Amino acid sequence: MIEIKQDIREYVVDNKAIRKFQVSIQNWYVNDGRSFPWRNINEPFNILVSEFLLQKTNVEKVESVYKKFMNYWPSVQSLSRARISSVSKVIKSLGLKYKAVRLKTTAKMLEENFNCEVPRKSDKLLKLPGVGKYIASAVECFAFNKQKAILDTNVIRIFNRVFDIKSKKSRPRNDSRLWNFAQTLVPVNKVKEYNWGLIDFGALVCKSKNPLCCKCILYSICIFYKKNKTQLKTNEREKS
Ligand code: SF4
Fold first, then answer.
1. How far is the CA of 173 from the centre of ligand 1 (A)?
2. Global pTM?
3. What residue numbers bound the domain in which 113 lies?
4. 227 lies in a domain?
């Protein structure tokens, strides 16, 4: 057993379990991960836009909006000149009007302060309106291939179940100890596959309700599974 960090003493995870976790998530993504138009692309602007659109929204709704959005405003300059009412109209189905203002204001800031380029570092990304730690890390990883962790409700749930990690904060997404823990788990290679894998695995397998434990690649290291094995197997038998 190793102690991951002095200030996160309660988060103790075996090295072998970490490696198994990383490799399993990466391999699962390669075989079963989802494909979206904002993945496996090299345009930081498109990736930043997709992260804005994906915030607090069902991913299925975003795909068609994203395509339409990029058709109208494929660059920082074009979005910077767009009318907020036009942007609102295109993203209306996502139901979050404030996003139109954020997108337009961000494009203006990128044009005026960053030479129309999306910054590569989180300290600058965090200056953009509506960019918090999650979006900054996602852009650093997905657009610039950096070894950065992402942490949202789905990822927190996976950590909680697999490693029995719990946050004491009322808003776990902002818990710096959880972020530190997430960062220690990020593999050196194939970081995008690992992070996309976590997102998809939380949505499709380790779901908030009725996780698919009996078919899960992580069952051998999962503390939730160990604690609930008997009940989970009984439920599975009853279903079949
Ligand atoms: S065994 Fe169940 S709880 Fe554990 S990671 Fe898999 S789906 Fe999630």
1. 20
2. 0.92
3. 44-144
4. yes
